[in-house]
Amino acid sequence: MTNREIHITYQEYKSVEEMNPEDRELAAEAVKAMQGAYAPYSHFHVGAAVRMSNGQIVRGANQENAAFPSGLCAERTAMFSASARYPDKDMLGIAIAGGVMGRLAKEPVTPCGACRQVMAQYQAKSGKPMSVIMMSADRILKFEKVDDILPLIFNSI
């Protein structure tokens, strides 16, 4: 037997002002995207923004449905829309924000496992790292690649 470790490196910011201008813009778009959420059951609005290799930013928001689990997360609405609108462009980064009553949550909003796998798929398609920004009212986390939030990515097909 061999014991192994997985190391994850990320940056933590106290505010968007500490971030570079591109990341700051992407984070602001994720916050704006929260306005498009349809969350009559959880009342938790999530917004996501994806930066494409052509410079475009595509937003998405969570969409709930009474027929659980027919809704969809903000991250996947943003990525699926981005892929449909710009099928030949790469996704370079995604920012995620969420909260209640228009206020950001106290802890960074983290993507579910399904969203992480979709991120991994688009990252693999591009052959380039896709950064992931997770926001809250008090701190922002930035991961340089999807592997950092989904170690041991499923890619066996």
Give the C-level CATH assignment: Alpha Beta
**What gyration radius follows from the Cα positions, in whole Å?**
15 Å
Compute the average pLDDT: 96
Structural class: alpha+beta
| Tally of DSSP β-strands | 7
| Oligomerization status of the protein chains | single chain
User: Any idea of the CATH topology?
Assistant: Cytidine Deaminase, domain 2
Low-confidence stretches: none
Distance between the termini: 27 Å
Overall outline: globular
What is the level-2 CATH architecture name?
A: 3-Layer(aba) Sandwich
Question: What is the total domain count?
Answer: 1
Main sheet, how many strands, which sense, barrel? 7 strands, mixed
Helix and strand pattern? EHEEHEEHEE
Strand proportion, as a percent range, falls in 15-25%
The number of helical elements comes to 3
